[in-house]
Protein 1
Amino acid sequence: MMGVRPRVSRTACCLAAALLVTAAAAAAQIEGAAAGPEDPKGSSKTVQTEGAAAPAARVERHSPRTGYPSIGPAGAANTLIFFTDYQCPVCPRAARELDRLVEDFNGTLRVELHHNPLVMHKNAYDAAAAAKAAQRQGKFWEYHEELLKSRSFSRESLIGIAAGLALDREAFIRDFDDPKLRLEVTAEAKQAYEADAHGTPGFLINGHAEVGWASLPWLEGVVRAHSR
């Protein structure tokens, strides 16, 4: 029902105040760096996730070289921000439903993916940086899909995923280690903290935040209740 928050059991990978600690630590490491401007150019085709239903052809996936990767039309009336952590065991459940979510709203919703690596996951920050490095080559969604299936997030594994997608290895490593890119990850984690999305998966729509995952119908209810 519109405007009523469903009483459901949600699963989340949470650590209170973890984002603030993560952001502070990363900021100290890369003090003085500045994030680059957003460039809307660049996109990638929809990628079917293993084990998930094929998304409809009209669902758009965009991988701009900078800024936020997104699903759905740029001119949609509402934008849902999805905060994710690649080491969170719950986040893939939500990530694999995003195409269907956008499809079900028939052009009125787009989803932006923002990173929220929790401090409890020692390799999550590197995984987020690696995804952003792939994004600089216009291959965010392809890399994202591989991360959802990966069981290792070591530096070697992250570089190996890039090689498997035929990314420019030297450029990937350079971008992966770029302090400015890592500051972007920190800024997104800080954004999640300030939005009261203190865990993952997290969602933010028109100022309303939710943390955890129940089901696609549950998330659709959240979007409907807080759409403009």
Note: The radius of gyration is 17 Å.
Protein 2
Amino acid sequence: MSVEVTGSTVPRRQLGRYLRELRNRQRMTIRAAAEQLEWSEAKMWRIETGQTSLRSFDVEVMCRIYGAPADLTEALMGLAKETKARGWWQAYGDVIPEGFDVYIGLEEAASQLSWYEQELVPGILQTEGYARTLIEADNPDMGEQEISRRVHVRMARQPLIRRATAPVQLQVALNEAILRRPVGGPQVMAGQLDQLVQVSGLPNVSLRVAPFSAGVHPGVMSGPFVILRFPAGGDGRDTEPATVYKDGFTGALYLDKPQEVERYARAFGSIQAACLDHDASRSLIRQAAEELRT
């Protein structure tokens, strides 16, 4: 009897998504691809929906058939090596090349993000000036062209909030310290705070602040995290399991075991309970912006 490997399904799901996109770009049906690979259509479906792991050799063959460029082939082969892991710790620049951002793919597929941040404005809400300051500080030896490319990638995530069809439902809880740290100087920071006020007025966005006066709450211990939830399918069940993402200094942690997700969901609820309400949060953000202008 085969025993399914426990642990995160994130790398399998992400690998399947990329392989499906490559096949579609070639206008190749599942049947045609299965015939070339000498696999069953059922196996192709399991691969593309993240139901099974893959050898890096098999990924290389699929990429060749789909006409994938060499750098993407290398990245997907690295991702395939992680599909058999019991838990998944992605160390950037190790197995998977830097710049192959699995999180962005998950974010684009998500229908809801529940996001807690302690120190910095979430990337999906950053202004260009704020983002550039952070990227330059984190990459002091990087050239201007690469800095600009990374800023562009961060800005390209933001339409998810405003897209006309099914904009992502965004719940954000921010530590008050974020409002008080003048990233990029007073002018850049005031502009960033203005954007937070503007975005908080969207019907699909809830943005609240945990004030210093709240004292100790679960976010103090948990650190920043994002809970990603995905659209329901025709049967009413989620198309993908909810996933917790935690970014780290040397890598990123993805958790999707139900008990792990539930623990972070409870923490997020408690953090929200410690936050100011919507109107009071907007007032505090406006006040912080005005203080920077005086």
Note: Strands lie at 88-90, 112-117, 169-175, 205-210, 225-229, 243-247, 252-255.
Protein 3
Amino acid sequence: MSLDLYQRLGLKRGASEAEIKKAYRSLAKQLHPDRNKDNPNAAKRFGEITHAYDLLSDKDKRARYDRGEIDEDGNPKMPFGGGFGGYSNAGGSGPQPGAGFENFNFGSTDGADLGDLFEGLFGAATGARSRSGGGGFGGFRQRSKAPQEGADIAYRLKIPFEDAVAMKPQRITLGDGKTIDLKLPQGVEDGTRIRLAGKGEDGPGGRGDAMVTIEIAAHGFYTRDGTNIRLALPVTLKEAVLGAKVKVPTPEGAVMLTIPKGTTSGKVLRLKGRGFAAKDGKRGDQLVTVEIDVPSDDPELHRFAEGWSGGGNPRSNLGV
């Protein structure tokens, strides 16, 4: 029997978000392909625990999984999956009264054709009608099963903030030890998933896919606001009063920005097209919030302020 998502992480159902995160980080360090290049089973396990963490760290999907609405792959459970589930023969023979037919439990089909299943339950005549498409349960037909593809492998890729803005290709090492340059899509954000066709495990029907989940690293002074980027920029009192051209960092290199005369703290200046690309390719802006830096130990500034009578009352609009 395959392990459920909690068992893959060595946890019990009801584990907290912190416990899930801690268990995943511990296992990921042990099983990462870069540390187990000669152990293909480690790469498989790494994919399994990463997939388990991706699903359990999503509150909505975890709740649906806990309720039995989706399976370990995150797919909705089909009505015939493990049987219809509601009628029980425990403690008696036959269906329990009051339950609908949609909840009848046929038990596991073990991969059997549904036409054969219905023939065994309801007799050869019904089974024959089912396979021929007339009557019965809507025309189940026997057909040969296609060879199954290999399993998908899940990866998490943490990328620098600046690389996400510039959509710089990222080099990633796959479970088989091969490296590829991954192209980031427009509109990339935390949780974006990229499918790499044919980069999963081998199977009779071909290779599965690799599923790469993107995580954008936090930055020391940039913050993301949709497709825009925000930056707090310190300026001197002189630059704010008299105006100036100052150098401002952007994720793709420094640029010159004009500080208008009489700029006050909190004023937001805009650098167009310096933000993230949206899915349609249009780029956001870099929003620069001016912060006036007043030195605390400048004697000349102290003498000026003592002799200056200007400024009025900047708090008058507050009623004080």
Note: Residues 80-144 have pLDDT under 50 and may be disordered.
